[in-house]
Specification:
single chain, Threonyl-tRNA Synthetase, Chain A, domain 2, binds zinc ion, alpha+beta
Amino acid sequence: MAAPAGHTRLAYFEDMWALRAPATGSGCPQEEGGRRAVVLDATVFHPQGGGQPADTGVIVSASGGARFLVEDVRVKDGVVFHYGRFEDAAAGDGCGAEFTKGQSVTLEVDAERRKLNSRLHSAGHLLDSCMTNLGLHLEPGKGYHFPDGPSVEYKGVVPADQLQDKKIQLEKEANELILKGSKVLVSVFPYEEAAKLCGGALPSYISQDSTPRIVKFGDYPGCPCGGTHVADIADIGNLKMIVLSNILGNWHPENF
Ligand SMILES: [Zn+2]
């Protein structure tokens, strides 16, 4: 799928398993917001967003002579900025000629960090299924899938006298689903098909002209998501609920 002119093609959108891929420089590594940034025609790096932290890794020039260490990735107006520094400071002097427009580079995402981020993100979505299974039909809101205290917010209230029980039940349900395992489907679909996979309707912020990317756990209804996920629910490993409150629903996946 081609990206709009000037936009970076998000390769992980179509294939989130590709952690190593070629790309082409879009120009001189530039100073952006006081940091040095590499911009490419396409990227397998997941930029911070949707509650998921950025990937890290390295971008290597065709000759192998210049290595740019990617410490943070952000997307702005459709352009992905890979922030970081050249491993050898001298290679980055001036323009860093090997990264200029039209030059081939190879992208390598840090696999361990990606795996953790995917497990945390999937665990957040799994909680939605557990909520439904427990009869808690609350609409999921913001997710925070960072390792330092991941959480999911829901619109609505759990009666105060049920919080402790529900917390225990949610954790039990989550770990049962993890033990059972089920395929995780992540793909881009035509709007109508995407709506069907999500139980018939999509949130209004999704344009009817778009081809939404959907994540779907087993037989549960899917939902729109731009993040990365595990291949099977079993790969989440284990999930421990630390807090369930009417201010912020918090959980913590253990053994991560
Ligand atoms: Zn998501």
